[in-house]
């Protein structure tokens, strides 16, 4: 039924855009872990809108509350429940979308699936607001992974048609990503990306983008056969993020144009460890980690809610009409998508590497 | 642990490359369905190698056997078990790969994951041979979908760098795909694709490709929220197919370069039904089907096993060595991937549309 | 990891005894259902302690809060999140049990499983307090079942050694159960049961009991084969209720002493419907409902926390010691178990009968 | 959909009574385990009918075949597929039961659930024959548990109204159970049990029984909270065995008549380890193992198929008729139930203790 993901590290999200708030239940967090709530709050702040002109002007404080699972600052082995209240809701701006569905938005399909009962205000329980719950749960996972040395780092790869001019170094990613309003690790590109977003906003439009995620220090030999390949689990989680239309690993779609002799990652030995000269497989071979960094990319579509007039169909009259979407929407959902991708990748990997996490007693 | 996928229409695969055979258990097939075994055999034949110079020269008869679940030609409501024997096995050609892992192949990661015990011959239970079990189970799903009017059609979109010159019509797809040795629906492009494959084979190399899948007549309003979005379930299944490195829906990665005003699929009315002018969402909005055709693309890497000399590391000596892969391998796994993608998409959609299938009594 | 149960109607519980509160996420509730919050509150009140001398003297208001999933009084198709705050907590009485485990209590095993980090106060996330979350989620299920005509009724079958003198009628069950402090549908027996509970309390002891559950108007032909038999799903849920040591259906353990000719439920026709003369199968044959009422019994052990001095082992010194349990505990957990059994049975049956519920549009 | 159980050690069963055979896929078997096929065959032989006058006269060779998962005598980490062919089928004796359902048999409910398409011969995929697949998969689990020192031992506790006169010692259980035709560990009682079975058979009747299972050397501290309590998982599996109507742990239903001061298992120290003086909890407290032996009992109803004339309803005419069941049926399914209970308990515990098994490298 969709609210739960994972088998050993398991995440259940709940809440909705215009209700009391959103939250998650994290099941499988080993006992005794000293959860850093400030760091979790910092993740929430990175997702929060209202931080710059490049995201929406809504203000959501998103203060992390712990409803259960912590005892004296450490996880107690039971379900960890995290919650953030909804604030600054302007429901009036949604009065129309209930019967005039916004193009490319879930208004229409939610109407079909849930019939008249869907709370279309702000996208209800299918809203981008649900990514706050993903960031919360995934943030816990990221801290657990950090404890066993695994680092998960997402950043903007391409925004509004501006690509990174080169591979960013890990140092650049760590230093620059979240200080950049567009989450771009290379300052020169960031400028140009910001310009494109500004231009789109000015013209009542929006832009798409590609988020890349780099996972370093991944131990080799983890993953399950066939249907639970590491790629399957990651893609499953990433396609649950609103607005995602593509996921690729390593060389991704580009590999289709390569020859085997180009695409194959040859092995060599470095400091006594087997590594590959290239990483076209993105750290995963046969569904199992090979010890190289996991590299993946996620394509976000432009924000569907744009002020520009668009054609739609009035569901009550079945006549075509023009809609002008009101409300305060991000001109590029990919920007907030960066921390969402990062934390959902962490949530999946905490499940994949569960044995390793579980064995490291606190 | 990876052998099972699906919740209501559920597929469990078993077997291995160099064992007795491979098969699957299909759980959730409604009682009374007149399964067409000839059509299932025809699906298997479409996956079978040894059909042309563009695939391997191995011969596998792949005769479909029913171990349980059929009674007087109809499903009896219980687990449907299908099996194909392995034949024409040449294990001797794999003597080396146990300790000299082929670049980009699962040899290395399976060795790490399953320690010395993995049956590396032919890729064991992680082999491309397992796709025979996927084709079997998915073939049942495809027949069930056909019964409720849904058509699933995969074809080659790009092979060896040769793209389709235009969108193929549904008629072309149906008429040409499986009569083409490279599963290409547009004959002119097929010629060029075949040439690239031949050239690659001649030079001891291999090529990658992109398989596209078009699902027509999909009812609107199906899919679950958040983690069980239709895209999540499809991508999960598709990334379990060996060699897949990317999955995208609708405009896919291209959407990242579009503006909202370009990417949004505006609604209009046609013959009393709501449709969209474009289909950049690939038939899925907010994780739920919107009634437009589902369109997705899957990137296959070039066959990893190539005759060209490659560098690897001897796992026993930890010294770098050169490996020349023997055995009979497809120069392009994407070719056989076409029917695999088609049937795995069907397996997932039979799960998504289960209520609809279940309500249509036989 | 244990917080989630069900496949289509799915319940996730969270919270803990001495934290902010407890709650649940109900996934799969169809859109448009007019959830009766007063009736849900009434279920909570039936579980609440402090109602009589036969239960504990703790006071918990247990006011039901809706965190998400309701819109204009109807379910909106998304995750329904319900919550009750914890109140009147006296943590000081638990200072000892962290290292002097109470006999037959989870103190000891939780200490082993969660090492030092378990919040032993009040039983933490394994506490009887968690049954409040079960009652909440199951209460939703019971309302859904009522909507399709299925009635779920639990009552005390045996308490402190006092058995019901005869089969209660459905009318008696409905009229008397929850007005009786010991949930006994037959007033004469209720008196005697109350006396036994009083006596046990007076002597610093506790008593066990058997809760029976009767489900009427169950449609025939529901249930899945083998591992998802209706009995399997019900027993799974019931053994998750703290203190349960046995579950039986129909004639239950008594059937082991019967001959086939006695135990077999012969068929006959009544008003055009097939029924059985006896109901030794308890409404389930071959794991599938047969249209007769489902009858099951659940054995609850006596409350483990008793004031009488008991021997235990000090976990710090590994020396045997005597413990005198403080705090306010029910002298018979079976009493509060009645509504818990009733609602957990409902939660499982809402899953089993999901298709039926889903087809009945609101 | 019912054919799969377990999360890490996972069992999928397939096949049917009158098809090609029955089998199972074992997922999660760690690589390198030297599976003892002779011991597995011996388990199958213990389930096999035709061994004595106390079971049926059908002959089934039940030769274990390995379809995948073994390489050089050791598990290879992939799905382990085991199969036994069906032999000696007499379908003709079932010609009537398709429309004259046997009382207390699945004939009627399977007819409702699977409409006309169920293969009623021998019970189809719901048949007692499916327990052969359970014994196979559970037999693998039992060997894995043995490797970490855990012993699983089932035996007859009560048959045809004859109870064991006292607690059997572990030595008696090991020495006598499977050499007794009625699986009774105490020879004196065995004689009387056999007499009851013979008498029942002579009079065209059948008897019920109670199987007890003792698991020794269970490590303390294993099990998951709430819905995945060890009791929940065990009961779930045991209620999937055909004919089971009750499951209890430790003092079971008897505990309902006890006082807390009697029922509570007080702790003491023996050889530096914490143990309990009594074992009324049956080795499980709060859903978690406490280090004492797990003790459980399973009630089997008498075989439903008896030669004595019984009343039923003709499904075609809806008239009441008398049925005389033909075919060769066990007079007491509990007898064959012993090895089934033993191995299903093992299957569940291999899942519960998975971490322990997985860490013990081969």
Architecture overview:
The structure is a homotetramer of 362-residue chains. With 362 residues, chain A is an alpha+beta fold. Chain A has a single domain, classed as Chorismate synthase, AroC fold (4-Layer Sandwich), CATH 3.60.150. Helix content of chain A is 27%, strand content 22%. In chain A, the strands form six sheets. In chain A, strands 1-2-3-7-4 form a five-stranded antiparallel sheet, covered by helices on one side. At the C-D interface, strand 1, helix 2, helix 6, strand 11 and helix 7 of C face strand 1, helix 2, helix 6, strand 11 and helix 7 of D.
Number of E-state strands of chain A: 18
Distance between the termini of chain A: 34 Å
CATH topology of chain A: Chorismate synthase, AroC fold
Estimate the strand proportion of chain A.
Answer: 15-25%
Helix share, percent of chain A: 25-40%
Describe this structure in a few short sentences:
4 copies of one chain form a homotetramer. By secondary structure, chain A is an alpha+beta fold.
